[in-house]
Amino acid sequence: MDKHWCFKKARWDVFRDKFEASSEDWVVPRYWTADTIEYQCKSFYKDLEMALSASCPRITPSLGGPPRPPKWLTTELAAQRTQVRVAYKQARETMEDLWTAYRDLRRVYKRSIANAKKAQWTKFTSDVSNLEGMAKLARSLLKDKDACMGLMSSGQQKTSPDEAVGLLFDIFFPGCKNSQPDPIPIKPLAQDSELDTEVISEHKVKQTLDSFGPLKAAGPDGLKPIALQAMGPKSRCRLTYLYRASLTLGYIPKVWRKARVVFIPKVGKKHYTQ
């Protein structure tokens, strides 16, 4: 299991000092382009993670309490498991040739497990009709990075994100096209403009960051709002310039485009064209 930042045990004074030290020699680029934004964004997060590494421990999330038996493990399967274990013990401890019987029992047991898991998964996904059920489904899928939603169309499973999105659009938004807007031409940008400094100031950035709950759920980068709230003025200045350049150029860094999205249809509503 991957380790996560333990923000509750972080030493935020150390984090602030480390991040401020790495931002001490930072110089505002004279001109901003898309490449400049990408480079500055990567540099910002690199320094932030280095400061976190020096001040915030990583822990393995605790599952809490003894493991519960899986729901697919029925009484019949438990009895089969006992038979397999007894057969294995007898075959190992006796001189008789009982390995064939043990292998036959184990083969039947494994087949029963596969059928039970399939039946339980079908029931679990079919019963999802509210936010709580969707949250459980999302948690179960996130345990396996290679897991997919299992969307089916014409008997074929959709495995890639593009295929899944296309199928969801066809089902819930028939006739709609998932078109991308024309790219905005990127031109060099002067260091400051009055509009940018009025709309995005350091004070407004700090005020906005402080408005979030410190320990709200993290995004794909694993960072919670408290990490950005603990920044000093020099580090926050770097982030402010990134926001200004992104707004003025109409370009969003790639790392900011990543998000976890859960498609939750309303119960009883087949499509959303009305």
Automatic annotation (TrEMBL):
<dbReference type="InterPro" id="IPR052560">
    <property type="entry name" value="RdDP_mobile_element"/>
</dbReference>
<protein>
    <submittedName>
        <fullName>Uncharacterized protein</fullName>
    </submittedName>
</protein>
